Amino acid sequence: MRRWSILNLSLLLALLGYGNYLLEAPWGAFAIAGLGAWLGGELALRDATLQRYRDFAKVSNDLLWETDHRGRFTDLNGILAQIFKLRIGQRWRTLFPKAPDLAVLNAATTAHRPFRNLELSIQLSPKQPPRWMRINGIPLLDESGRLRGYRGTALDITPHWQAREALHTHTTRLEREVVAAARELRLANQELAERERHLRTLINAVPVGIADLDIEGHCRYLNPVGCTLTNCPEQAAWGRHFLDFVHLDSRDYVEFAWDINRASSQIHWIEFRLRGSGRWVSACWTHLIENTRQPLSGSIVIFFDVTEARHKDQKLWIQAHYDPLTDLPNRSLFRERLEQALSRAKREHQHLALLWIDLDGFKAINDSLGHAAGDGLLQQAAMRVRRRLRESDTVARMGSDEFAVILPAIPDLTVAAQVATALLARLREPLTLSTARHISASIGLALYPLHTETAEALVQFAETAMVAAKQAGKNQVVVWQPPKVEPGDGS
After folding, report:
1. How far apart are alpha carbons 363 and 365 in whole angstroms?
2. 404 contacts: CB under 8 Å, gap ≥ 6
3. What distance in Å separates the CA atoms of residue 489 and residue 228, rounded to the nearest whole number?
């Protein structure tokens, strides 16, 4: 279309250059009229195409959108724009507060790159559940290469996400049906052989591992998915005890759960690691109890791969409980461990010390050498404190240049003070940065049960003692002391 428009414009300019001649020629008027009709037809065709695109956009189930360089909507089309009540000028990024692909979206928009098939959650209102969108976008650049905005599409895939929950329910129901089918197989006789083969085909087709065990726990059958998960061929699996498939790290736990439920015919659930492949599986099993109505015996085990989900859960837990810079427990995990240590100290009648550490001179190094040097300082300080403590102790980063140390089962206040003094000396040693640097620390100490019996007060007293160490000249350990009561302050 653009090539024809340029050609038409060229012809028009040429004709206008000979306008007087054409008007005087007998056929000139007809030529000009023909050219006008031609140009008018092309404009009409362009307008019709544009109108058709707009009509398609209005009735499309997708969301067609365009933003300026600041991320504000400049154009919205499609039914979803009306359903979600989106408006021109609204910042599109505010619709996606949290989502698995948000980091990918940030990277793409920062680098002015296109993105495709990103799945993001959209929170329309606090009272409504989030909906899920699959979005695509391309950057719009001007002639100088600067970003003018983005243009793209979005599709509501909430039903797809909801289907996953339905699939989980369906899988559970299917597993129960498979267990029932396997039990019926054991009851089948010769005249039900055809039905047995049909059910076996069904078992081989389900996307879970299935093992049929005898009364001693030896494998009588392992379906193809089970062979893949255990990394064991079917023939090699026959006769092997089920515990042989379990990783040594999980074997004691699985064997214990297996033995205590041996006399139960209910369905039991357990997660463990497989020996051959190292993958994590979630398994349910039921024991076929022999009785007068059911002469069969043995067990049916159904297991499916949860390795990826387990890794994701572990990664999320670590991100929520550990400081990414120093790999130390963060404030949240510190609170949990302090409560646990305090409960153990109360139960076993032991002392527990809490040290609150603030680095002296950190801000000066951070300001003069930069944040990279400051991060390196914090990492070295964290490593020094951690290496000086016992395995049973906990050191956590509480934020900025503050650390906290939990010393459980400490003999008395004197030993706790000695540990704090040793940490003080260790932190004074030269640091390996761009140049040799020295820092010190101010440490506050509070002891259970000498000073308090609650975690909140213990933290408050240790932090107060640290502030007192700062005010007293830094580079020292201060044990919390209750405030002095001046004469006449009584009732």
Report:
1. 6
2. 334, 354, 355, 356, 357, 395, 396, 398, 459, 462
3. 78
Amino acid symbol at 192:
L
Cis, peptide link before residue 449, omega less than 30° from 0: yes
Torsion over CA: 378, 379, 380, 383 (sign): positive
**Residues linked to residue 309 through DSSP beta bridges, in sequence order:** none
Supply angle C-alpha 463, 466, 471, rounded to 5: 130
| pLDDT single digits (tens) 210-227 | 888 888 889 988 888 888
Round to whole Å and give the CA distance between 154 and 55: 17
CB 209 within 8 A of CB 223: yes
Q: What share of the chain is helix, strand, coil (3-state, %, to 5)?
A: 50, 25, 25
Task: Quick: pLDDT tens for 97-154.
Answer: 666 678 888 888 888 999 998 888 877 777 778 788 888 999 999 988 899 999 998 8
Determine the Cα–Cα distance for residues 154 and 135; give it in Å rounded to an integer. 4
Q: Tell whether pTM > 0.85.
A: no
Q: Edge-to-edge strand order for the sheet containing 147-156?
A: 73-77, 63-68, 147-156, 131-141, 115-122
DSSP 190: G
Q: Residue 302 and residue 227: Cα distance in Å, rounded? A: 12
| Contacts of 69 by beta carbon, 8 Å cutoff, 6+ apart | 146, 147, 148, 149
